Amino acid sequence: MDNKTYLEASARTASTQFHEDKITPAMVEMALQEAIATGNMLDAIKKGLYYGKSLPDNHPALDNKFTETDLDPRAIDQDILHAALGIYTEATEMLEAIYLTMKGAEFDKVNAAEELGDAEWYMAMLYRSLEETPENVKRVNIDKLRHRYPEKFRSMDAIDRDLDTEREILEKGHS
């Protein structure tokens, strides 16, 4: 699926609702602060793993440097891990810009586009590792969303999903 078609099809399934009655600004602020802190911690881990940069002396992971674990980072293809960490850290940079805007700063669209481009770079790494194409992933995603939202986005359809049928659509599209 080409980008223009994907953008049009994705708009049909996007929520236009904003439920401030359920999620307060203070809740959003707390969640953003946690996500940004975690993203910055992961960014340092990513730079250590893939660029050889030492962690800063105050990095929380240093407290666990000698802790025993059964986690094996080499159990997953290194490009998949690198791409996932990169996508998360680029999303963190976008969240930082959004957070600052919500606190009164002007939203920097040029910076947002840069972060989007950086995330795309990591997505390209992930596409290569998964032996997928962006066009196929987009097509299958829209097929899944058309099943979930036959007419348009509805909150109930987002909450009460038919995961078995969605999985069938995904397996058929990615086989």
Describe this protein's structure.
The protein has seven helices and no strands. With 175 residues, it is mostly helical. It folds into two domains: 23-63 and 74-131, no CATH class; 133-175, no CATH class. Helix 2 packs antiparallel against helix 3 (78-102).
> Sheet with the most strands?
none
- As residue ranges, the low-confidence spans are none
C-alpha termini separation:
17 Å
Q: Tell me how many strands there are.
A: 0
Query: What portion of residues is helical?
Result: 55-70%
Supply the number of helical segments. Answer: 7
Total number of domains: 2
Query: Which geometry do the CA atoms define?
Result: globular
**Strand pairing plus helix content: what structural class?**
mainly alpha
Mean pLDDT: 95
Q: Give the ordered list of helices and strands.
A: HHHHHHH
Q: What's the alpha carbon Rg, rounded to whole Å?
A: 19 Å
Summarize the structure.
With 175 residues, this protein is mainly alpha-helical. The protein contains seven helices and no strands.
